[in-house]
Amino acid sequence: MGSLLEKSLNFKKNVQISFDGGNLTSDSGLILYKEFDERIGFSRTIKDVFSVNDSVNHREHKNEDVLRQKIYQRIAGYTTDDNSDELRYDPTLTTILDKISLASQPTLSRFNNKLNEDNLKQFNRINELLLDKVYSIDMPEQIILDIDSTNFETYGKQYGSAYNSHYSANGYHPLLVFDGLTGDLLKAELRSGNVYTSRKTVAFIGPLLKRYSNKYRCVDIYIRGDSGFALPQLYGIIEEHYGKYAIRLKANAALYKHSEEITARMETLCKRNIYDHHVIYGEFMYKAKKWTKERRIVVKLEKKEGQMCIDYTFVVTNMTSHPEAIIKFYCNRGTMENFIKEGKNGFAFDRMSSSSFIANANKLQEMVLAYNLNNWMRRLCFTNSMKALRIETVRMKIIKVAGKLVKSSRYLKFKLCSSCVYQNDFWQILNNINSLPLLN
Fold first, then answer.
1. DSSP-derived pairing of the beta strands 142-149 and 175-179
2. CB contact at 8 A, 67 and 111
3. How far apart are CA 317 and CA 223, in angstroms?
4. CA–CA distance from 143 to each of 67, 118, 181, 223 (Å)?
5. pLDDT band for position 2 (cuts 50, 70, 90)
6. Beta-carbon count within 10 A of 251 CB
7. Where does the record place the Transposase DDE domain (predicted)?
8. Residue 364 three-state SS
9. pLDDT tens, position by position, 352-373
10. What count of other Cβ atoms lies within 10 Å of the Cβ of residue 146?
11. Where would you tag: which of 131, 195, 304, 409 has the fewest CB atoms within 10 A of its CB?
């Protein structure tokens, strides 16, 4: 049926526009994600593990289907529940989810408010199972647990939101652990906004260390953290599970005293040349009052060009490498800031819109799955030229591909844009997906 409205344009009279182009979509690239989903058993794992305490059993949209819809919408850049009303009949999303129409905004909002603490455990289990499947395809030799906290700003009366003086903002203060080598988000936990950085860190990371030390004994485990995570209990549990760590210490009088010899070497260098840049590395053994034993401290002294004072960096470690190598290893934890930025800018990690704390905590876990599905596909299946792309660029190049769905008695055929610049990459990604083993 033709469009009821057709218009000619003033800038060129023979150009006309109408909305009768057919069953079109702007997100055809999501089909690649669904193909990858099937390959690693992403949706199957959700269906096997995810269960909501819901007395309604005659609903049109099952809870696990609503969860998958939210994940796919988020990957495509539709990060709010309101977007679902605009996407109700999108050809790509309805095909991926095998639906006539998508769940509406009220359905998605009701879903958020039905989730509880049991669902938090289920999300964590789903992520673990999927990580196991990814490791069965690409087993790492090393895993670097980069632990950090961040700020999720809030603007309403969300329960648990509080002022955090470090960030000078109201919000939540979650804990996050990424693999520093792959960018995989291994675990996330929402916390109240006013808790200290290290609050419940041992309880948070302990099960993760136990899981990796028991299940992946051939994999070397390393942990990096800033001075907010300088806890003797954390050092102990890492050592108990045979992990290696490099955690920064806050400078204090005792550490300065132990580094006097290194400081003297720096002062000698500065007397010879007071203006140039100087760096010295050293080490010593140290036992704080609350520690059960001595531990190795590596230290970096740096005087920048034209600067009179000396900057100290103290790192406690059980690694045996040269002090310079350990300091460089620690400083590489800065890559985690890029992962956090990817989560916030690309997947809206920090948009906690519910008034309920538990609803927001579960929403963060939905985002973890969306982030990881994209990250796993990017590193396992993308072409070499695209492996380093952030999600905003991935959407522009791979996901936001115009397409037309043509239905016949036997097939659903997606006819994609003939002038798509990244056709070769699209086909190569699809070939890479199909070359993966089919996981249960």
1. antiparallel
2. yes
3. 10
4. 29, 28, 7, 9
5. very low
6. 15
7. 9-437
8. helix
9. 888 899 999 999 999 999 999 9
10. 24
11. 409
The CA distance from 234 to 231, in Å, is 5
Give the model's pLDDT for residue 304: 86
Other beta carbons within 10 Å of 360: 23
Is this model's pTM higher than 0.70 or not?
A: yes
Helix/strand/coil for 180: coil
Would strands 244-249 and 220-225 be described as parallel, antiparallel, or unpaired? parallel
Nearest to 150 by CA among 204, 193, 209, 202: 193
Instruction: Report pLDDT digits (tens) over 390-428.
Output: 999 999 999 999 999 998 888 999 999 999 999 999 999
Pairing of β 311-317 and β 244-249 = antiparallel
Q: What is the dihedral of CA 357, 362, 365, 367, to 10 degrees?
A: -90
Phi and psi dihedrals of 98, rounded to 5? 55, 50
Which three-class secondary structure state does DSSP give residue 320? coil
Q: Which amino acid appears at position 316 of this protein?
A: V
Under a CB-based contact definition with an 8 Å cutoff, are residues 182 and 375 in contact?
A: yes
